[in-house]
Amino acid sequence: MASSIKQSSVCRTSTAQWNQSIGPALSHSTPAPRPSKTILNGKTVTLEPLDKKHAIDLWPQIKGDERGHIWTYMSDEPYQSLEDFQQAVTTKSQSEDMVFSAIIHNETSKPVGWACYMRVDTKNRVLEVGNILFSPSLQRTKAATESMYIMAKHVFEDLGYRRYEWKCDNHNGPSKQAALRFGFTFEGVFRQHMIYKGRSRDTAWFSMIDTEWPLVKKGFEAWLDDKNFREDGTQIQRLGDLREKLREQGGLVDLE
């Protein structure tokens, strides 16, 4: 989708009339549109609006005690039956506040997870990606990374948001590592931020902003390039390393 939304442009005036330091002025402050239920196409995955029908194919991938760890840091508890899981998926799909997308693997045309846009603040052009479910078959794959690239690209280029957030339980090491790998910047920890599942949660905050997106985008695209993968599907260069090379080399990287 071609973007019709202008990215933030700032005036570097930073002193008020009383000689006080202030933030840069914006050339425009138009609210961003809310994310809608839409289809986002990629090479390995397609994101489509979450629907009750997706529960049937997802259920075998997330059920059972051996997969209970998937739910440790999510608001959901492990589901005990397909019927309960279908009801939960239906509720998520009908949410007005959170926009859920099913992650469909293009090779199988089957859902392998979900993610959503949440805490949408159109006035300030800020939203969060969260409630991310990666089934075991999606975890640590090219498809998982592409799904996050697609969602970020839509936020910045199609919807014109200024700030994209990632938050997680501070005990959730893999989620914190994923945020950094995807190009988010760690901002700190909100202590005793939430109570969930009968326990206290300190929340780690990460963000990505529109001025950072061009470099982050190039990093994603360089990593996702077929040239960056061996015949067995393993990566040649890591995403974070590619992004750092791009930063050092002014946006150019050689995959040969």
UniProtKB/TrEMBL annotation:
Annotated PROSITE patterns: GNAT (PS51186)
Gene Ontology terms for molecular function: protein N-terminal-serine acetyltransferase activity; protein-N-terminal-alanine acetyltransferase activity
SUPFAM superfamilies: Acyl-CoA N-acyltransferases (Nat)
InterPro entries xref list: Acyl_CoA_acyltransferase, GNAT_dom, Ribosomal_N-acetyltransferase
Superkingdom of the source species: Eukaryota
Segments forming domain N-acetyltransferase: 45-202
Name under which the protein is recorded: N-acetyltransferase domain-containing protein
